[in-house]
Amino acid sequence: MKLTAAYHGGTRYDITSGAHRVVTDQPSEDGGQDAGMSPVELFVGSIASCVGYFVGQYCDRHQISTKGLSVEAEWTMAEQPHRVGQVTLAIHLPHRVTAEQSERLLKVAHGCTVHQSIAVPAGVAIELNPHHRGEKPS
Fold this sequence. Notes:
alpha+beta, GMP Synthetase, Chain A, domain 3, 2 domains, 3-stranded antiparallel β-sheet, two-stranded antiparallel ribbon, 3 helices, 30% helix, elongated
């Protein structure tokens, strides 16, 4: 699997994956043009939307209405190293579910792929110009 984050001036990067594009930027107070979510907002949003997807799939399988389903995310930053320190997700289902369904929904939410990629940290390798090793610049 592969995607590309391409520089588009200032603090903007456009992420493309297949036919899809997401714009990331920094807020104007941080020197950006606010053309899109910051990478941190996108990171937190990817957790929230992944949890929503998993919960929605569970609801569909168990004939629980997904009308009005939303996931609200709040986060705080931490230092040394500078990072997202805590993410709190609130799953909103605007109708009653049983205690058993509630327990099951939370278990399913914790199983979301993005959450699991943080819970069991993904390895990240960073290389500079990996396709040009040993070549002289032209």
